[in-house]
Amino acid sequence: MSNTKSNSNGIGIGTILFVVFLVLKLTGVITWSWWWVTAPLWAPAVVIVVMLGLSALIIKAADRP
């Protein structure tokens, strides 16, 4: 018996949502702005940056005398 690990880097939910929104936009089903169509790609990064910024502000405020 061999102990092998399977590491799957499949398609994430954000990529699937982007492809669905892209198809809907290109077929004219939705008339959303391209910002919203591409949001599943960039929104997680924005959320992380905002959370890091808020964490830095909280840490900075806690260090004040």
Automatic annotation (TrEMBL):
<protein>
    <recommendedName>
        <fullName>Transmembrane Fragile-X-F protein</fullName>
    </recommendedName>
</protein>
<feature type="transmembrane region" description="Helical">
    <location>
        <begin position="41"/>
        <end position="59"/>
    </location>
</feature>
<feature type="transmembrane region" description="Helical">
    <location>
        <begin position="12"/>
        <end position="35"/>
    </location>
</feature>
<keyword id="KW-0812">Transmembrane</keyword>
<keyword id="KW-1133">Transmembrane helix</keyword>
<keyword id="KW-0472">Membrane</keyword>
